[in-house]
Fold this sequence. Notes:
binds coenzyme A; 2 domains; globular; Peroxisomal Thiolase, Chain A, domain 1; alpha/beta; five-stranded mixed sheet
Amino acid sequence: MTRYAQIVGWGMYVPSKVLTNDDLAGMVDTSDNWIRERTGIVERRIAAPNETTATMAIRAAQAALQVANADPARLDLIIVATATPDYLFPATACLVQDALGATRAGAFDLSAGCTGFVYGLVVGSQMIISGAYNQVLVIGAETLSRIINWTDRNTCVLFGDGAGAVLLQASDVPGGVLSAVLGADGSGGDLLVLPAGGSRHPASVETVAQNMHYIHMNGPEVFRFATQVTARAARQALAEAGLHLEDISLFISHQANGRIIQSAAKSLKLPPEKVFVNLDRYGNTSSASVPIALCEAIEQGRVKRGDYLVMVGFGAGLTWAAVVVKWGVPLPVSRPLRRIVVWRWVRYRWATIRSYLRRLGWKILAALRGLFIGDSSSG
Ligand code: COA
């Protein structure tokens, strides 16, 4: 039997704090007019102090599981695509796994810059198509506000925070993720880079003084790269799926700059109604942008069963990726019954308690070992 990887659940989360272009004009030498004209961005969301990539990823994941009425304990794998993990390790995906009570799931983070979510879709769907797994949660989540230099007008106007998630499920119904294109060109790595905090430039007083823990970007070069790869990757993914430009129902590109999206749409000969744009409200949320756009496209009734969606990502690496998805779920989905919502709430509270007890268990065991066996590392 041929296996397919269908998207059966989707969810998003964005912080409530809105930062407008006018707000930014009060912080750096810029203007609402310049930002709108050069990028298409009007406002973006900024995480509250108690929000992180993991907390936003968990909210998006819970929403996706709710849509699919899926049990977190049955998940096989959780992939979190992010450039702004809570820690270098443990993986943010492990924090999500713990919070969801996804006791059977493997979990890892995926680093492919803004392309991360589309890379994750490819990895997750291949895990399903190969027969290895039945349910894979793919999340794109970012807290870019924490790595932005708020005095650098070249970058601070572009980015925002948020998270989006999809649940992939094995199916024998033809459709789902039909084709995949992955690309990379590491020679362009310096064009979009967070220079310090890794093994090349570990954190030090100097790295902090030299602003090396912030995004550094050559905007015009990244712009040129993005306009070249976006349409090309979309074409390749279509060809691989045996489809043509006319078959595209909706084009969901990484939301980095309205001019990049327009240029790709023109090259693909797509009318505006086949191109999804929401970067005016969120800015560039990196790996969260495509799943957030997908959620809003569904919400706006722009996706229906049998549609061919083309999703394209590009970003740091340099990397790019494209997939064609044949939509398989009837829309709109009905609201879940109240008792299911309550049951799910109880499940997540239980996951929190379980996590607390397991953490306590690790501490007690370590203390007991110290007491009865002694500190073996000192020998
Ligand atoms: N407000 C006002 N002026 C600004 C500005 C801002 N926020 N940012 C840059 N400028 C100025 C520059 O200093 C420059 O001034 P100068 O001519 O006096 O030197 C001028 O605007 C033009 O700068 P330039 O970088 O050539 O503008 P641009 O038209 O290329 O637009 C970007 C800049 C960043 C919007 C554009 O290059 C871009 O979107 N690049 C891709 C970025 C991206 O998508 N990154 C993420 C990829 S995942």
